[in-house]
Amino acid sequence: MRGYQAPSMRNNPSELQMFFTTLSRARQGKLAQSASTTLLKANQWARGEAVAGPIAQALDVAVKAHKATVKAS
């Protein structure tokens, strides 16, 4: 019964990660392709799971750019 002593391990996705999950699957695929990664890795990133640093940064940049164009129109 050691489990009660450990804190709950929860993924806390950022605002950009939550925005990514609201996009259509086709748009998610395009953003993943522009970040030079797979849709699988992009979905893992969106859920707050561990993804390599360069992939996470590339997805951040791609989603920020898309969000800016959505706000502009």
Chain-wise SSE layout:
Layout: H1 15-22, H2 25-34, H3 39-46, H4 53-72
Structural commentary:
The chain contains four helices and no strands. The chain has helices spanning 15-22, 25-34, 39-46, 53-72. Helix 1 packs across helix 4 (53-72) and helix 2 crosses helix 3 (39-46). The protein is elongated, with a radius of gyration of 14 Å. The protein starts with 14 loop residues before the first helix and ends with a helix.
Low-confidence stretches: none
Number of helices: 4
User: What is the total tally of β strands?
Assistant: 0
Which percent bin holds the helix content? 55-70%
Query: Per DSSP, what share of the residues sits in E-state strands of 2 or more residues?
Result: under 5%
What is the C-alpha radius of gyration, as a whole number of Å? 14 Å
Give the distance, in angstroms, between the N- and C-terminal Cα atoms: 55 Å
The backbone outline, from C-alpha atoms, is elongated
Q: What sequence of helices (H) and strands (E) makes up the elements? A: HHHH
Core attributes:
single chain, 73 residues, mainly alpha, 4 helices, elongated
Overview in brief:
The chain has 73 residues and is mostly helical.
